Amino acid sequence: MSDTVTHDLQGVGIGRGLAVGPVLRMPEPLPEPTDTPSTIGADAEKVRTAGALAATAADIRLRGQRAGGAAKDVLEAQAFMAEDPTLKDDVDARIDTGKTGERAVYEAFAAFRDLLTSMGGYMGERATDLNDVSQRVVAHLQGVAAPGVPDPDYKFILVARDLAPADTALLDLDKVLALITSDGGPTSHTAILAREKSIVAVVGAAGALDLDDDHVVIVDASTGIVTVAPDASAQASASDTIAARAAAADAPVGPGALADGTPVPLLANLGSVDGALPAIEKGAEGVGLFRTEFLFLDAEKAPTVDEQQEKYTQLLTAFAGKKVVVRALDAGADKPLSFLNDEKEENPALGLRGLRALRANEPILRDQLTALANADAATDADLWVMAPMVSTVEETRYFTKLARELGIKTAGVMIEVPAAALLADRILPDADFASIGTNDLTQYTLAADRLLGSVASFQDPWHPAVLKLVGEVGRAGTAQGKPVGICGEAAADPLLAVVLVGLGATSLSMSPAALADVRTELARFTLDQAKEFAEIALSANSAVEARVAVLAAATPVTTSLTSTESE
Amino acid sequence: MADRTVTIASANGLHARPASLFVQAVSGSGLAVELTKGEKTMNAASILGLIALGLKHGDEVTLHADGDNADAVLDDLAAFLSQDHDA
Fold it and tell me: For the whole model, what pTM was predicted?
């Protein structure tokens, strides 16, 4: 038994869920089979190994059929790995040298695993699949239970080193309250499946394997913190929050507004036309960021005006009478497009991307703006179009002039570069609106590549330096009567959303799943309170301090509201 | 005996999911099919061999099989590889 963990654990949260319950650990993997000579002879070893390989394949295939969906494909591939003829030849060759079936299976899978790992990237990630299949075959040979998810008759929080697809696929969602892994990052299988199935999860929480079975913990995906040995009031508070969120998700939706009635339109970030209806069902009052890259990715050349116009018309028809903000093609950095820029850049985030790349390929920009103007003329939505990654006043003038010339009625810019935020008062006279992309603004303000895990801790939009820049844009917008929206993960953080409104944001756009939480939070505070929270956050020294200070300022309000209600 | 030379069409190459479907088709044919890329020849029913070959979009491979209906089987398999399974 390991030492009892007494301090809280920090990992990376997937989503924003919260869970409280008893821990159960996944059984540790089987020990490596010892390399002792076979006592039953090569022929007998081959027969029992062939049987174990076939039985394992059948078992995995059955799990796949029960799981369905994306998991079925992954498990089907694993079944073929167990049945692989080349692997079987390798196993038999090893048995011929006098090894046991267990050892031969272990070595043959390990050899393939090392080969895949040496190939790196996507192939390297398949190594986990091979380890999982290998363990299952060896367990079969030894007549022991395959390592897998525990199945008690109560709800629990599953703790594991990392989960293989075969494990995550069959999780009984009625019983598993949350997942905690000690290894694996935000792109691991566990994280991907947790996102797909909306399971509360914290991954990469070092020390998680030392948690004791049946001890109660609180898992908060929004902070990535696992609270060990929470006291009764912390448990009750977590349970209340879970119940309140469930109630909020079911509550009738209305337009976003502060407690004093100040409207704050809540909009959706969308990446395809298919997302329109689900977003409206979740109460989106329009679209605050429509990403157009899906029309261009995987394309050797840009789509024609007609092809684009058809998609834009579908989108605008779905949001008839509502505001739809479309972002012009934003290529580069994490989403390169060969026909825009195929130069290899040392620092793509600082390279020819966003409006810079469009300007270098003006016919593509002209086609897109023309298609948007045509779609707008044929529909009843309120179309706004904005340029990505604008850095200067001159770029603003270039884009808005071209957009208006091609028939766009409302043309604005995205503020993602600190230079543009600092000079927002000079940029806004030439733009109809501004929308702040907090992800890139954070990356550029703190000089931390948002795709690099080693500097992920800098990527926090609560940082006062980021908020100060947001405040500059908000002030300029208020003074000139120009709308300032926020699109980016920051708007999906309920308390931060209140702070952003206090800094002058007039609308918030986020992934539709976050709308309910943000709507509820906004309704708790007045504009004066939001401004007070903004001041508190701005005067903090760090992102963590800002969050803690605003949370502390917001909490007494919660208490007094509750007591008022109970009177 | 029959041979077919085809170009891998899947945008992301023959990764686990399309490889799995391909192996399923090979196993279902009942024939021993060989796949050659450059100098390397392997059993086309081996998903691990396929994954380890790291077949990418645009790679050219040759399929080989012997038997009564080898031509028909290879036509089907070649057609599979010529489709983009990531589309």
Answer: 0.58
